[in-house]
């Protein structure tokens, strides 16, 4: 006898159905994710380009222990 074979009748009735997402909402979410990815990529690329200067300024400020 399987534990999954006997479903409680009230369980199925209490489950919430997923609401459909419109195409425009999906497009806005995708656009926002792409903008965030581009901004993160630019920030990471500039950090790689200026890493020694950033680290030395943190050393001078006494905050290099964070890295």
Explain what this protein looks like in three dimensions.
The chain crosses the membrane at residues 25-48. Keywords: Membrane, Transmembrane, Transmembrane helix. The structure is a single chain. The chain has 67 residues and is mostly helical. It has one domain. Helices cover 66% and strands 0% of the residues. The protein has helices at residues 9-14, 23-49, 51-61. The longest helix is centred in the middle third of the chain and has 27 residues, at 23-49. The chain is elongated.
Number of helices: 3
Helix content: 55-70%
Count of all domains: 1
SS strand fraction: under 5%
Query: Would you tell me the structural class of the helices and strands?
Result: mainly alpha
Distance between the termini: 56 Å
**Dominant shape:** elongated
How does the major sheet shape up? Answer: none
Model regions low in confidence, pLDDT < 50 over at least 5 residues: none
Mean pLDDT: 81
- Cα-atom radius of gyration: 25 Å
Q: In sequence order, what are the helices and strands, one letter per element?
A: HHH
Number of strands: 0
């Amino acid at each position: 006898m399987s534990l999954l074979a006997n479903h409680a009748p009230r369980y199925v009735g209490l489950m919430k159905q997923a609401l459909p997402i419109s195409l425009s909402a999906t497009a806005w979410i995708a656009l926002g994710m792409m903008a965030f990815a581009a901004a993160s990529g630019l920030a990471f690329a500039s950090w790689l380009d200026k890493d020694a200067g950033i680290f030395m300024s943190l050393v001078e400020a006494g905050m290099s222990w964070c890295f």
